[in-house]
């Protein structure tokens, strides 16, 4: 007889769940017993691979633009149709446009805030009616919001993640009345394909050297913290921002 797992009987949606931190989170939540919906925008092959790894009885891939309100509604509806409820929301999908002030266009601003801010807010709004006491909502910020080493080209990205920090703080006051905990996980530099893309070996060594442990984070480092915040041990924690960066900031 197998021993009970901390997320047995729980249903989770992970946006951006086919790659990087999202993928690692999906696999960790599934390992902890949850049934998981893997949301993706373009990477169908990767999403289906994750589902196959977990098993079609415990995982479902749903294509949806996590920054589009109508498609967010379809994501929520598809989850409830398959699994009957929602217990955990992990809003991992994000975009990072790196432009200084003079190169920041309205299109860049709109795209950044649509996926990074509007999407998580309305995902929570549409999911909450299907959630009960004990539910968890996990947003994603960034350590860069508090790092003195931030460079000017992070203007739009940090602005959007600063909004997420405030969304976490205020929404937690609302949803605590329903027994739903709302927290934010803010990673430091993490070795995902997106982060590594376009960076030289010298640059990566420099960034790793900024950390007292001398390395980049891994997607699994972040996923383990998300799993903790998703589980029963975090029942007295809400409105918090967990900076998961190995002591970098």
Task: Compose a concise summary of this entry.
The chain has 249 residues and is α/β, with parallel strands linked by helices. 43% of the residues lie in helices and 14% in strands.
What are the low-pLDDT stretches, counting only 5+ consecutive residues below 50?
none
Shape: globular
What is the first-to-last residue Cα distance? Answer: 44 Å
CATH topology: Rossmann fold
Major sheet: 7 strands, parallel
Assembly category? single chain
CATH architecture: 3-Layer(aba) Sandwich
> How large a portion of the residues is in β-strands, by DSSP E?
5-15%
**The CATH homologous superfamily:** NAD(P)-binding Rossmann-like Domain
Total of domains: 1
Strand order of the largest sheet: 3-2-1-4-5-6-7
What's the total number of strands?
7
Our Rg estimate from Cα atoms comes to 17 Å
**Chain-averaged pLDDT:** 96
Q: N-to-C SSE series?
A: EHEHEHEHEHEHHHE
> Count the helices. How many?
8
CATH top level class name: Alpha Beta
GO biological process, one term: abscisic acid biosynthetic process
Pfam families: adh_short_C2
Family: Belongs to the short-chain dehydrogenases/reductases (SDR) family.
InterPro entries: NAD(P)-bd_dom_sf (IPR036291), Sc_DH/Rdtase_CS (IPR020904), SDR_fam (IPR002347)
């Amino acid at each position: 007889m197998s021993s009970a797992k901390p997320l047995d009987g729980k249903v989770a949606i992970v946006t951006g769940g086919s790659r990087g931190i999202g993928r690692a989170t999906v696999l960790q939540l599934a390992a902890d017993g949850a049934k998981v919906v893997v949301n993706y925008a373009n990477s169908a092959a990767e999403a289906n691979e994750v589902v196959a790894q977990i098993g079609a009885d415990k995982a479902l891939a749903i294509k949806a633009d996590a920054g589009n309100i109508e498609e967010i509604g379809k994501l929520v509806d598809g989850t409830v149709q398959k699994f009957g409820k929602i217990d955990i929301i992990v809003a991992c999908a994000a975009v990072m446009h790196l432009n200084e002030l003079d190169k920041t266009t309205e299109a860049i601003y709109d795209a950044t805030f649509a996926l990074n801010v509007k999407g998580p807010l309305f995902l929570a709004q549409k999911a909450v009616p299907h959630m009960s006491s004990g539910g968890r909502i996990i947003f994603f910020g960034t350590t860069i919001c508090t790092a003195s080493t931030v460079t000017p080209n992070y203007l739009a990205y940090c602005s959007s993640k600063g909004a997420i920090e405030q969304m976490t703080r205020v929404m937690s006051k609302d949803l605590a009345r329903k027994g739903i905990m709302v927290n934010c996980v803010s990673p430091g530099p993490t070795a995902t394909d997106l982060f590594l893309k376009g960076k030289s070996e010298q640059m990566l060594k420099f960034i790793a050297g900024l950390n007292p442990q001398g390395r980049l984070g891994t997607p699994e480092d972040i996923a383990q913290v998300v799993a903790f915040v998703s589980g029963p041990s975090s029942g007295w924690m809400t409105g918090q921002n967990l900076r998961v960066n190995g002591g970098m900031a």
